[in-house]
Specification:
Elements: H1 2-16, E1 27-29, H2 34-46, E2 55-60, E3 71-73, E4 81-86, H3 88-91, H4 96-112, H5 130-135, H6 138-150
Parallel strand pairs: 1-2, 2-4
Antiparallel strand pairs: 3-4
Helix pairs in contact: 2-4
């Protein structure tokens, strides 16, 4: 939470600085997604993982409903942009664990260019079923992901 507050304050100062040579960043997170984004940021802070200032957008997007995707990391491989789109129709069907899984997965793509892998639970290319999610130790899976990110992917 503190990391996110620092990021927001930094973005505010950048936007108010008035100097033409500094970039201006946008920040937008859909209200229902905020607790999950804040959770992700708190885990980054807990593991002493830094992120750089950049445009940061995590939103519900109706266009993605035309696909079979739950979420997409549009900013992956674009190091000046975090742009995660979440399917609002499918989001409502997810359990709390599946929602955490989705946000951690997509933000890891966007912030750290983390690829899909079957070796890291939260970076598998498919979300777990309801039954798999129910028995999953989500905290252990998050710690595994954070260690993977911290060790340089």
């Amino acid at each position: 939470m503190r990391l996110l507050k620092i990021l927001l304050i930094g973005l505010l100062f950048l936007n108010c600085s008035g100097q033409d040579d500094k970039p201006v960043y946008a920040y937008e997170v859909s209200k229902a997604l905020q607790p999950y984004v804040f959770d992700y940021m708190a885990h980054l802070e807990k593991h002493d993982i830094q992120i750089k200032s950049q445009t940061f957008i995590v939103v519900f997007d109706a266009d993605i409903m035309k696909t079979n995707l739950l979420g997409t990391a549009k900013g992956m491989l674009h190091d000046d942009l975090v742009y995660v789109k979440i399917n609002p129709r499918d989001w409502g069907k997810l359990s709390h664990k599946q929602r955490r899984h989705t946000i951690f997965h997509e933000l890891s793509h966007d912030l750290f260019n983390t690829e899909h892998t079957f070796e890291i639970e939260l970076m598998k290319p498919v979300i777990p079923t309801d039954a798999e999610s129910f028995v999953m130790d989500i905290e252990k899976a998050i710690d595994e992901l954070m260690k993977h990110i911290k060790n340089g992917i």
